[in-house]
Amino acid sequence: MDAIILQILNGLDKGSAYALIALGLTLIFGTLGVVNFAHGALFMIGAFCAVTLSRLIESSRTVIDESRTDFLGNPMEVQVPYVVDWFGESGGAFLIDWAVPLSILFAIPIMITIGWIMERGLIKHFYKRPHADQILVTFGLAIVLQEIIKYFYGANPIPTPAPSAFQGSFDFGVLLGFDPLTILYPYWRLVYFAFAALIIGGVFAFLQFTTFGMVVRAGMADRETVGLLGINIDRRFTIMFGIAAAVAGLAGVMYTPINPPNYHMGMDFLVLSFVVVVVGGMGSLPGAVLAGFLLGILESFASMREVIDLIPGINQVIIYLVAILILLTRPRGLMGRKGVMEE
Amino acid sequence: MTDQTQSAPAQRPAATSPDTRRRGATLGLAPRDLGLFLFVAGLTLCAPFLLNPFPADSSLAQFNAGYPDLMQRFVIFGIFAIGFNILFGLTGYLSFGHAAFLGVGSYAGVWMFKLIGMDVLPAIAASVITAGLFSVVIGYVSLRRSGIYFSILTLAFAQMCFALAYSVLTPITGGETGLQLSLSDPRILGAAASASGNIPVPSLFGVEMRETTDLRLGAWSFSLNVGYYFCAAVMLVAFYLAIRLFRSPFGMMLRAVKSNQQRLYYTGLNARPYTLGAFVISGMYAGLAGGLMVSMDPLAGAERMQWTASGEVVLMTILGGAGTLIGPVLGAGVIKYFENIFSKLNDSVLHGWFAFLPDGLENFVVAIVHPFVGKGWHLTLGLMFMAVVIFLPGGLVEGGQRLSRLFRRKSGPETRSTNDTPAE
Amino acid sequence: MGLLEVKDVNKRFGGLQALGDVNLSVAENTVHAIIGPNGAGKSTLLNCLVGKLIPDTGSVMFAGQSVLGRKPFEINQMGISRVFQTPEIFGDLTVFENMMIPLFAKRDGAFRMHAFEAVTDEADLIDEAERMLAEVNMLEKRDFHAGSLSRGDKRRLEMAMCLIQRPKLLLLDEPTAGMARADTNNTIDLLKEIKSKRDITMCIIEHDMHVVFSLADRITVLAQGTPLVEDTPENIKGHPKVKEAYLGEAA
């Protein structure tokens, strides 16, 4: 029992990342009808926003501390972050510690801008082109974005720790009446899940309860008719693209403490996120979220020792296997609508 | 260089145009296709010379591409792309998992070297057959869907193959280190070890693939390699078969699948076996490429099956011109050239080139060029790819056609319009 | 016994009864028109004939064999060809290739792996394709891309593609929909010419009374998924039930 709960918890953080990326993918697909292979790159850029901000915050000047000497007997050189100069010792330390969560504020405008540039500069010219062309051009864009990041940040993963307050693990077992230390769950993953739930809830609420969201939903259902009503769909869809980019970016920002970001993390997540979208049903938002969590949890169950002993290698292929089965038995995915992407 | 598969036919108001009648067909090819075939044959035969245009000791020698290893890759990836084009170019089904067949073919080839002997023919036969069997299974399942769903299904299958080869199937695939030959392999029809006690090398009827004759003519140096010429011969056969397929009723049906499946069904034709046929043929081409790859260097690794490798062949085909005969070969050549030559350029080479500029300007130019060469060549590749999809959906072949049209228009004002659309 | 026999066909979509007890008999070598106001179930009926939809109950027999449960390409191989409301042709292929594909389908069946033969070797089929193109006055457009043709030419090409298979039954789904009067008249002439030159049975779904009365030997009037009357054009013209169906319940 405790093992099962542990696996569900383990699946949640990966599932959250899948769900957030898939949500943006399916949002773009549902509104703009574009298959965006560069969406993983947005996730990656988000992660590097966090890296950039923590580097900016840590940028420092060198002062010579006459009172101390290094091992050669020379006066010691000490790095003093500028934030310490500006906000004092404790304020500066706090900012450095909290760099990742603070990156959210930094990442939102950047991601929306990038999304806006992408949509206006490239994607909008591909609305009428075949899906194959969309896949290919966004695939090219993904390569370019990832190479740019590689150029500036190098090829190695960059560790970006969570605030010290969230380091360590939470003992879930005690809470549920099991023995202590049976179900340990890192705090940050808990934060990630809560954050994902918040974002997903926010996107749904936005689409459900605002006029803007209503128009977008109507546009997803029947673009032409809404266009005929004299509503400028295109402009709203551009904003939707920016929002989708921001969602992917934030998913990336918060993921950095879980997995040190590298330049190809976007591609790694993209393939799985596409599988998630297809399993959930192309163009279905609840489907994407459901499938994201489902596949994340399924993956962590398949990684259990007992399961691997039973079927070797199942943890590597479970997601693809499920995707193939679902595509063949339920062509529209779990919650797909009729007529989306069908011949 | 141009071919007519994708482009609109030139204006031919004649009632019975000669091109569709069998007339003077040699090797079963129409004169135009024969010309194309002979052109490619000439290029591949002379490649060791054409690709080494710079004297061996000159500063431009790094642009020489005439060394065996690279030339082999040109033709092997040419085969891979020709095969991919049979599926994507004709039927429009975009597979994102074709590298899996290349990988499967590679493993099958190495196993033949391990079990049977070092002759390349059984290895290549095994590669093609194994890849064919895999593509029957994967194609049968994947082709039940079309469009993006097909792409995702093929991607999922390929990633599955990759993940399995990398982990559980390590006894068969060698896992992370890859599948290698060893002295303890049985090799029932050949020697377990060479005369000098080393692992034997792949050969064709006793002629080793790595055998190379270096030819020095003045300052120039050319290497003639057995392995390259073997691959080139195989590629020419593959290319010839592809031309025949493009011009066959089967090829026409595949283009019809891409054009209008509904009409095809209501014309009494079942699209499914046609697309499966194309999928399997193109999978076998990929297997052939994999078999040749291990025949040149008997080592197979799982990374060959990763989806980025599948993306690479998509890239080659699109870059050259999907649906055209020569396009994939061109695309494979260009991308492999970029990969090998451009990725070798470094700052000191760049400084050498731009030394004629004033110092400040020199550093500036080098700084600008730097991100695009050396380790950054993928960036150039990505940009090129985007540019091609945006501005030249027909690839380099279409670019060539546009250029030649432009040229013709300038030279002769009487050929005003090459557009075949009648005025309505 | 007609060439096409539709017996007691019912089809429901959710709560909507699209077809209710449809009985229809199309005699060999006649032009049979099915008319009716919008939403009468004409298209549903047609889709049941070609295998796109399967009726809930009833039977559809063609030349003594049931078509139910067969795929569209199998039904075509039985001898039924279909012309669509908007011409469906192979736009990326040349006019000539558009003609060759139905010829191959007729000769080789639903699938044949003729991957290493040349299209240009099929002298007989090429001649046949060119004869047919000449008959519909399209020979000079032989090497044009079919997608670049005018709408009228596309329609003629599509009919030629159907006719070259020598179908026993040609189904036409509103062949003049969206056409100007002049084009409509051309199409009527073309169909008359086709009919006069060969033994063929046609079943036309049509909206336009002018077309129907110029061509049809017999007319079935469909309203709300059920056949109202079936008779000759002369008798249909003044039939009170038909007027009622067309002018609505107000009459």
Automatic annotation (TrEMBL), chain A:
UniProt membrane topology term: Multi-pass membrane protein
CDD domains named among the record's database cross-references: TM_PBP1_LivH_like
Annotated Gene Ontology cellular component terms: plasma membrane
Transmembrane segments: 16-35, 98-123, 190-216, 237-258, 270-298, 310-328
Alphabetical UniProt keywords: Amino-acid transport, Cell membrane, Membrane, Transmembrane, Transmembrane helix, Transport
Transmembrane recorded as keyword: yes
InterPro entries attached to this UniProt entry: ABC_transp_permease, BCAA_transport_permease
Coiled coil: none
Primary location class: membrane
GO BP: amino acid transport
Source domain of life: Bacteria
Molecular-function GO terms, alphabetical: transmembrane transporter activity
Subcellular location: Cell membrane
Pfam families membership: BPD_transp_2 (PF02653)
Protein family membership: Belongs to the binding-protein-dependent transport system permease family. LivHM subfamily.
Protein name, per record: High-affinity branched-chain amino acid transport system permease protein LivH
Source organism (scientific name): Roseivivax jejudonensis
From TrEMBL, chain B:
One Pfam assignment: BPD_transp_2
Subcellular location: Cell membrane
InterPro entries in the cross-refs: ABC_transp_permease (IPR001851), LivM-like (IPR043428)
Coiled-coil annotated residue ranges, if any: none
Residue ranges of the TM segments: 34-54, 74-96, 116-141, 148-169, 226-246, 273-294, 314-338, 350-373, 379-400
Keyword 4Fe-4S: no
GO terms for MF: branched-chain amino acid transmembrane transporter activity
Tree of life domain: Bacteria
Bilayer topology annotation: Multi-pass membrane protein
Annotated Gene Ontology cellular component terms: plasma membrane
Name of the protein in question: Leucine/isoleucine/valine transporter permease subunit
Organism: Roseivivax jejudonensis
UniProtKB/TrEMBL annotation, chain C:
Domain ABC transporter span(s) in chain numbering: 4-249
InterPro entries reported for this sequence: AAA+_ATPase, ABC_AA/LPS_Transport, ABC_transporter-like_ATP-bd, P-loop_NTPase
Record key words, sorted: ATP-binding, Hydrolase, Nucleotide-binding, Transport
E.C. designation(s): 3.6.3.-
Enzyme kind, highest EC tier: hydrolase
GO MF assignments: ATP binding; ATP hydrolysis activity
Keyword Metal-binding: no
GO cellular component term of the entry, any: plasma membrane
Keyword GTP-binding: no
Superkingdom of the source species: Bacteria
The name this protein goes by in its record: Methionine import ATP-binding protein MetN
Organism: Roseivivax jejudonensis
